[in-house]
Design a protein that fits this description.
The N terminus and C terminus are likely disordered. This protein has an eight-stranded parallel beta barrel with strand order 1-2-4-5-6-7-8-9, surrounded by seven helices. It contains 17 helices and nine strands. The termini are far apart. It has about 350 residues and is α/β, with parallel strands linked by helices. Strand 6, helix 8 and strand 7 form a beta-alpha-beta unit. Helix 5 packs parallel to helix 7 and helix 7 packs parallel to helix 8.
Length: about 350
């Protein structure tokens, strides 16, 4: 093993203590309000920002893009870009904010990202990704990681994925998260790229066997904690995206299942009170309740009263002068003692 790989392995042992359960970075979804909400449900899940483009950090509203509540830790910043110097500068600017990890996006297939020549299209130029990682590592004080696909377009994943992994590990990457699908850069929308290319979990397992000293996490199509647990028999970390966002209650058992916390029933009233207090602070600083409430809509999927809960948060929270009392009213609509069979969908 090279010196770079040895250093990465040592960092993995210190920081990435398997298993790791993470909530995936999702554009327009995993903003700071979403992450604060998720943190109230799980103390230990690793949370990711939505992708932030390096140019935006360098030239844009840094405080708005990078600030977060200290309660969100552990939290990782995902960057988008393909210019090593700009990514290094973005890492330098972000350093005082105190993120626990910096992640480079090598998996987003959207046209907007492709036009900037980054995201999934970087799978075609692994040497560029390696240069970016090397530049980021020179200034980063926390682990630098990669989130990628297994390949793009006509690439053979059995060739493209290990090639990328070898080069970024040589450059000093501390961990690799793999979305176990190809991305088709032409002909499929971002939504279709999350659903149509077939999942290939086995190739991710093989990469872990091939790089046994490297932290490797898996992402893509994972819907339940049972599925997550089954993947952890093969890899070091598991990352859920839409399943965790659209039904955030799934996070309530994460600390027990994956981090050794005592089993306990969720205290939904305590969650309500913490979110009300958070909303009060946000509104007092000039924000709107909708900024927070939109992330909470899917919380009680499967319980009696969930439909009314969704209606209140979707409708009343969107009103211009909506206050934290809307959250209280929404929670009051839910029958926590009910069963899923009683739900009127």
């Amino acid at each position: 093993m090279t010196t770079a790989k040895t250093a990465a392995a040592e960092t993995n042992q210190r920081y990435f203590k398997a298993p790791v359960f993470a909530v995936a970075p999702m554009i327009d979804w995993t903003d700071r309000h979403c992450r604060y909400f998720h943190r109230q449900i799980s103390r230990n899940a690793l949370l990711y920002t939505e992708m932030v483009v390096a140019d935006a950090i360098i030239h844009g509203p840094r405080e708005r893009l990078l600030s977060f509540d200290t309660a969100e830790h552990p939290v990782a910043l995902q960057l988008g870009g393909s210019d090593p110097a700009k990514l290094a500068e973005a890492v330098r600017i972000a350093e005082p904010y105190g993120y626990d990890e910096i992640n480079l996006n090598v998996g987003c297939p959207s046209d907007r990202v492709q036009s900037g020549t980054f995201g999934a299209c970087l799978m075609q130029t692994p040497e560029t990704v390696a240069e970016c990682i090397a530049a980021m590592k020179k200034v980063a004080k926390v682990p630098v990681t990669v989130k990628c696909r297994i390949g793009v377009d006509e690439q053979d994943p059995e060739v493209a994925l290990p090639s990328l992994m070898t080069q970024v590990l040589e450059a000093g990457a501390d961990a690799i998260w793999i979305h176990a699908r190809k991305a088709w850069l032409k002909g499929l929308s971002p939504k279709e790229n999350r659903e149509i290319p077939p999942l290939d979990y086995e190739i991710v397992y093989r990469m872990k066997a091939r790089f046994p000293h490297v932290f490797i996490g898996i992402n893509g199509g994972i819907q339940t904690l049972d599925e997550a647990e089954s993947h952890l028999a093969h890899v070091d970390g598991v990352m859920l995206g839409r399943a965790a966002y659209q039904n955030a209650a799934i996070l309530a058992d994460v600390d027990h299942r994956f981090f050794g916390a005592a089993a306990a029933e969720p205290d939904w009233n305590a969650l309500r009170d913490r979110m009300i207090a958070y909303a009060q602070r946000h509104i007092a600083s000039g924000g709107r309740l909708q900024h927070i409430a939109r992330h909470m809509v899917g919380l009680f999927t499967g319980l009696p009263g969930a439909r009314r809960y969704r209606q209140i948060l979707s409708t009343d929270a969107a009103k211009p002068n909506a206050g934290p009392e809307v959250i209280a009213a929404a929670f009051a609509a839910v029958d926590f003692a009910g069963t899923a069979e009683a739900v009127s969908a």
